[in-house]
Write a structure and sequence with these properties.
single chain, 740 residues, alpha+beta, Rossmann fold, nine-stranded mixed sheet, five-stranded antiparallel sheet, 9 helices, 40 strands, serine-type endopeptidase activity, Peptidase_S9A, Peptidase_S9_cat
């Protein structure tokens, strides 16, 4: 997602933007036939709001010795790029010259920045922020010199908005908008929720609205001991423990739905509602054809994403194709709008590059695979500004391989590609690719020895690091460089191949048994990658080994592997964790008497599950932002997250019995080991109550359990101070309970 006093005419793409006053801001195009009347859920369109100037000096007020730079978006000629950098202690919006060391802070506010997109004409930079560090986001724009900052969507703390693409003539930027909810459920999992007219409960627990001052909170997090359960000192506990036997929460919330608007940042045209989908799990506008006649949308829940080509003149969907999870920027139209390039894994194990030949009405004439690699996913796809060169990043066993292909090698075959040209990479993983002028690409790279940084490639010949890019020379103490992980492969008890990365703490003989932490990533559709991980560095610096596996459900190993944990297959994922721990002992140097399990998000859920399904295996655990009961999770999470999660975990009405069986709270009596839970106070993805109820139940059974709630954080911990506190607290806990 400079005020130079000039005015311009609103050059609207055909069929997309109307002149001011000719189209009401809430008036929709004809609805998608599968979604019903968009007026059922659409609210008033967001209106741009001017904001105070918030630019900053070249250096942020508090500069870290180590920082990263990521998510670049270049101007049209590729001489400058906007990017996200945490040198000020929180991810903020910066811009700088590609070839020089001149950088500037464009927004000094403390709200973390999530996405950045520079307009094609270079006049605006649109970006998404997370007020208060929570999950609700808003879209802003600013001039490249830091002036003219304005809010485009998401002004209500209960609403959320994120970026889509720019129109090619820069007349509008697409914004996906989740309007403030309608009156909330009267009951969530059997507990009353205040009326919308009443004083809202703070922290957005179990589906209630956030406190009015949620974006302006300050203060420090608190590590709670055995006497308290609440998220901050001086607050009353938030009511009784959740009753897992309470009546079922509704499966679909009445306020579900996402809308895509086209918004003119100059305010010369009214916002145009492109589409609304009720009960939507995701919805993003990825591209518009140059004439504005066709739109490329990505929609659907996890594991069932799809690309949709939509005519803007009559709102007719002309083509649909399943696409892979992962990067949301799934494809792009050719300059003439007659070819659609897509990253898809439809009817195949691994994602490939598809070419879809379109007629003048947007109907598909032919669909073909034009670039593929056996056993490797096409992970990132980007096209040059002229649409004639595509950059393809392949996921090869966790590392990235980059190549360039010509998308129009002959006039006779506009839907074919030329020979691939490999581009050598200085680090292991590419996290983003974007066009940057003629023949130039900007890339965000990370690796096991370096923090994320921004590089540029010219004509695919050389890779040059931007002078202001990540600073990480001081990230580790002198004489102790980051540990380079080694791959481990194993076979699960049911024969499924598994793999992961093992980090060996320095200073110990290879055959000497070591305390080991099994760390589980989130998603579950994420993948463990060989990148610089400050948490792992903290742990190995304390003498702890780390084994970070990909259990079933992870990306990067084929579609069947991703789907292997659906429904009752999740019980096998619990066994995967135990099998990985056993392999770390048998094939690696892990000490079987000093094993711990730790994870974040879905990995936090697996951590809760592991200590109640395999209580004899681990000595302690650290669960971060994890679900402990699927029924309360569905009752409290965001409606679009619930829509997506139902496909992955089970439906909260039809599969209630399965969800209860899969919930760690249903086996809490089996818990035997001490546990630390960590949560962000503004997490509305997995509400803090999920950690609170597990810690409360553990203490009631005499188990040593503590809760660390991080102030001004959501599902991801984005502030440097909080991230350091989390790493230290987790390492201290593990060090103490593994008796180092």
């Amino acid at each position: 997602m400079t005020e130079d006093g000039e005015t311009r005419t609103a050059h609207a793409p055909a069929h997309v933007l109307a002149r001011p006053g000719t189209l009401d801001s809430t008036r929709a195009q004809p609805p998608d036939s599968r979604t019903g009347d968009p007026h059922d859920t659409a609210r008033a369109a967001p209106e741009p709001q001017p904001l105070p100037e918030a630019g900053g000096p070249r250096d942020a007020v508090t500069r870290l010795r180590a920082h990263g730079c990521w998510y670049p978006s270049a101007n049209a000629d590729g001489t400058e790029t906007a990017f996200i950098c945490d040198r000020g202690g929180v991810p903020q919006l910066w811009a700088g010259s590609v070839g020089g060391d001149d950088v500037r802070l464009l927004d000094s506010s403390p709200d973390p920045v999530k996405e950045v997109l520079w307009s094609p004409d270079g006049r605006w930079i649109a970006y998404t922020t997370a007020p208060g560090g929570g999950e609700h986001t808003r879209v802003l724009c600013v001039r490249p010199d830091g002036s003219g900052r304005r809010l485009l969507a998401g002004s209500d703390p209960a609403s959320s908005a994120y970026l889509g693409c720019w129109a090619h003539d820069s007349s509008a930027v697409a914004v996906t908008f989740a309007a403030p909810p309608a009156p909330r459920f009267e009951v969530f999992a059997g507990h009353a929720v205040p009326d919308t007219d009443a004083e809202p409960a703070d922290g957005h627990p179990f589906g209630t609205r956030l406190a009015a001052d949620w974006a302006d909170r300050d203060g420090h997090p608190t590590l709670l001991g055995p006497a308290a359960h609440d998220a901050a000192p001086g607050r009353e506990p938030r009511g009784p423990a959740i009753d897992v036997a309470a009546p079922a929460a509704p499966a679909v919330r009445p306020d579900g739905g996402l809308s895509v608007y086209l918004i003119d940042p100059d305010g010369l045209a009214s916002p145009v509602l492109l589409t609304t989908e009720t009960h939507a799990a995701s919805l993003r506008l990825c591209d518009l054809s140059r004439d504005g006649g066709l739109a490329l949308l990505r929609r659907g829940p996890r594991g069932r994403r799809e690309a949709v080509v939509r005519r803007t003149a009559d709102a007719e969907n002309t083509f649909t194709l399943p696409v892979a999870d992962g990067d949301p920027w799934i494809g792009r139209f050719s300059p003439d709008g007659r070819t659609l390039w897509l990253r898809s894994n439809t009817a195949r194990e691994f994602a490939a590059l598809f070419a879809v030949a379109l007629d003048g009405d947007g109907q598909a004439r032919a669909v073909s695979v034009v670039a593929e690699r056996p056993g490797s996913d096409l992970e990132l796809l980007a096209l040059a500004h002229d649409g004639r060169t595509a950059a393809l990043s392949w996921n090869v066993q966790g590392a990235s391989e980059l190549e360039l292909v010509e998308t129009f090698p002959t006039r006779r075959a506009p839907d074919r590609t030329g020979p691939a040209r490999p581009v050598p990479l200085p680090h292991e993983v590419v996290t983003r690719i974007t066009a940057a002028g003629s023949g130039r690409l900007m890339l965000a790279l990370s690796g096991s020895q370096r923090r994320p940084g921004i590089w540029w490639a010219h004509e695919g010949v050389s890779m040059l690091r931007t002078p202001w890019s990540s600073q990480d020379e001081d990230a580790v103490p002198p004489g102790r460089p980051p540990v380079r992980p080694v791959p481990l492969r194993l076979t699960a008890r049911d024969g499924l191949p598994l793999s992961g990365w093992y980090y060996r703490a320095p200073g110990r003989a290879y055959d000497e048994p070591a305390p080991c932490v099994i760390h589980l990533h989130g998603g579950p559709e994420e993948q463990e990658r060989p990148v610089f991980h400050p948490l792992y560095h903290e742990l190995v610096g304390r003498g702890l080994d780390v084994f970070a596996p990909d259990v079933r459900g992870s990306l990067g190993h084929g579609r069947s592997f991703v789907d292997a944990d659906l429904g009752s297959g999740r019980f096998a994922a619990f066994d995967d964790v135990a099998d990985c721990a056993g392999h770390a002992v048998m094939a690696g140097p892990a000490d079987p008497t000093r094993l711990a399990v730790m994870g974040r998000s879905y990995g936090g859920y697996l951590t809760f599950a592991s200590v109640v399904w395999h209580p004899e295996l681990f000595r302690t655990a650290v669960a971060v932002c994890g679900m402990s009961d699927f029924l309360t999770f569905f009752a409290g999470t965001e409606p679009w997250i619930a829509e997506s999660a139902a496909h992955k975990y089970g439906h909260p009405e039809r599969d209630r019995e399965l969800l209860n069986a899969l919930s760690p709270m249903s086996r809490i009596d089996a818990l035997r080991v001490p546990l630390l839970a960590v949560h962000g106070e503004h997490d509305t993805n997995v509400p803090p109550g999920e950690s609170q109820q597990f810690v409360r139940a553990a203490r009631e059974r005499g188990i040593d359990a503590e809760l660390l709630t991080l102030r001004d954080e959501g599902h991801d911990f984005l502030r440097a101070e909080n991230r350091r506190l989390f790493r230290r607290a987790a390492a201290d806990w593990l060090e103490r309970h593994l008796h180092l």
